[in-house]
Amino acid sequence: xxxxxxxxxxxxxxxxxLRLSCAASGSIFSxxxxxxxxxxPGKQREFVALITRGDTTNYADSVRGRFTISRDYAKNTxxxxxxxxxxxxxxxxxxxxxxxxxPNYWGQGTxxxxxx
Length: 116
Fold this sequence. Notes:
Helix content is 0%, strand content 53%. With 116 residues, the protein is an all-beta fold. It starts with a strand and ends with a strand.
C-alpha cells in the first residue's frame, strides 16, 4: 500500500511559478505511470501531465510548454513545476500513481490559486 501526500500549493499571481511535490510513503518503482490531475470548482477532474517508467511524458494542451513533470525515485517523489501560471490554472491538484495492471493511488490534493 502506498500513500501519497501532495504539497507546494498556494496563492500566486498570474505569471508566477509553483512547484508541487507528491511524496510517496513506500517504494514507487513498481508504479509505471505517474501523473497529475486537477479539479476546478464545478468542473470534472482533468488530466494535467504524466510520466512513465520509461520517462515518456505527456501534457494536456492547456499546460504544455508551461508545466514540467518529473520524478525522483531515490526520494519517492513526483514533481510538477508550473511556470507562467494563469487564473484558469486555479484548481485542486491531485497526484496519481498506478501500475498497469495493478493498484491505483491518489493523493488528497493541494490547492493552487492564481490571482489575476
